[in-house]
Amino acid sequence: MRNEGSPRFQPLNIEPTAEQRAIQAARWRVCLVHANAGAAKTTTLALRLAEALAWGAAPSSLLGLVFTPEARQVLQQRLLEIGVAPARARQIPIHTFEEFSAQVLLKGEQMAVPRIEDAAALRPYVLQALEQVSNRYAQRYEYLDIRTHHVAVSQFLECQQRLKASMLLESDDASLDMEDRAIHAQATLTDYLCAQEFEALRNNRYDGVMFRGAQDATYDLAKNLQEDEFWHEYLPTCRLIVADELHDMNESAFQVLCALLDKGDVFFVGAGDKDQVIHRAAGADEAFLLERFRDRYPATRSLPLTQTYRHGPHLAFAVEHFKNKVVSSALPLHTGVELSTYDHTDAQAAALATLGAVRKWVGLGHGLNSCAILLRDTHQSVVLENALLQAKVPYRIQGFTSYLQRREILFIQGLLALSVGTLETVHNTTRRGEIVAALAFFAELDMDDHTLEQAQEEIAEYPELLHSFFHGQIERTAPLMSAQRMRVAIEQLTAAGEDAHAATALRDVCDALDLQMVARRLFVHEEQARVIQKSIHGLIAIAEQQGWSLSALYDWLGTAGAAPERRGDQAVVLECVAQSKGKEYMHVLLPWLEQGEFPAEGGVTQEEENLFYVAVTRAQQQLSLIVPQDALMQSPFVARMGLEQVNDRAYEALRLNQQRHQAQPYQAVSRPSGAYSFREPAPQRDGRVVLAVPYAQKDEAKALGAMWDPAGRVWYVPAGKDVRPFEHWLPKS
What we know:
There is one protein chain. The two termini are 33 Å apart. The protein has 29 helices and 19 strands. The strands form 5 sheets. Strands 3-2-6-7-1-8 form a 6-stranded parallel beta sheet, sandwiched between helices. The chain is an alpha/beta fold. The protein folds into 5 domains: 18-110 and 218-305, P-loop containing nucleotide triphosphate hydrolases (Rossmann fold); 119-211, no CATH class; 313-402 and 566-658, 3-Layer(aba) Sandwich (Rossmann fold), CATH 3.40.50.300; 403-559, no CATH class; 689-729, no CATH class.
């Protein structure tokens, strides 16, 4: 169906671009929106939903599908911001694919299936599957590689998730034998056979589905829809479906979506950015945006969203140069891109250079809370946290755990409490219990959860019982080798004494414990084992730098370790790039932009490139790139941004944007008479009142007490605050 007429729905607070209006009014049955980072794709999908309401569609006949709970929340928020009444917005079903699939499965199965998503809890099933593969196939295939150590289990869990997300576990070609099927699935024969045995354990032919792991509901529903026609009866019949984050689309989600699109006369608008495909291990593929929809639905129409609303022309054109695609910005904003250099041979230099960039930003009058340091991987936080702690710069971590709160550091603190200190000096009772759990974990103590929890609670209340726990439980019931190693470590620390040089003593203890091998044996994922070593090395490094004794280190762990982060407003954000997708920050800092770090050593080139694209496009006003002084060691991605080449063009675009903004400053959209509106003139559910603040007046609004919501990208008056000083920024109904 063709586009006819202009949109009926007129939003509040924004003036949609021509690209957005074309998508809002689209009457093609299947539309794909190819959006650049920061191009307001979620807002555009909200406009399309609101347009359907304006045409008389019932809210319950609409459906929004996303891949993460965060994306679901943002889409719900965007509906409110553009003027859809809260009561009607709540009636629109918006789910993640996994949530939606679980709901449909519950209708058909009529019973709740337990969920097991923790890798350690899945390990026994993996080992059982490997044993069955060995028993059934060892005689047939002599070259099977049956290994049960943590690396093998880790690789299998990743492989089976990809196989299921890609729907490669089953083959309709009866002529293919197991070896050919494994080759087709791009998996080893061992992993392929193990995945089948694992699925047989999970989905018993007599008892049904025993449990579901991460994304298993989507896979199970997709498989059911392929195999049994009656499952289609449990799908809702929709008038319009919108889907966000199509760059995270995999085959199982695609099959579920296609089943929905094939049921009735339904329209579909999906948005994504092929350059944000960073989850290939979970089956994500740009092919869905580029050809799969068009192959299934030949009349598919593709529409662009090229203009970013996140940053100014300098960064927009640098991204365009990096990705070789059209990117523009209409913002009258100079988003600076600044390089800071460090000596890559100095382990602390990158962290110190990052700290310097933070201080420079704060010195210009900005708050710490506007800074986000995005890491390629969690191991980089160790040196960085040490630098922030020593400089007394508060920080908060999103998406991972501070290294001082990780199990391996708690274990070291427990050993110190049993040798040169006492647990009584750890005032945080929660941390006392965590120390007990860490000692039990590294001792490989065979203790059920209830008994361990009781021990944690008792020792947290009566810390003097820690020694009894060690002698009565660990020494008596832990595996002999583990108990002996811990006893030797405690004896070494006790003999060294509280005044001993902490760094030297800890190195000796790590050797006595053979922590590297212990970590490899205990942890399912290889990266977890590596992070353990880096965390302990980081602790030794800060003890070395400070010249601490064992008692001084123990005292420091009792204070900094109990609460290394400050969760107030004024704190730098630390986050991994992969978890930052969909977010934005005024100032983004990217440390360790060197070969082997970013791109990571052995990383897939396309995915590393996309990760870098995601990282740089989180910035609004400033991007700081922390690079080695040695040009040969610098990440090749930095040069590919062409910062010098785009500079003159960016300044000219900025000048034109500023002229345009002065001639026609941003203001809330005025509604023509009779325009459709679903806005209720009441504060939001949390009591705050959203404002329409032009960019040029943001400082004035902030001085009066307005707050900025980075997730919603709006200014607002906090709940309970008098709105009269903000009257000229209140949206017009």
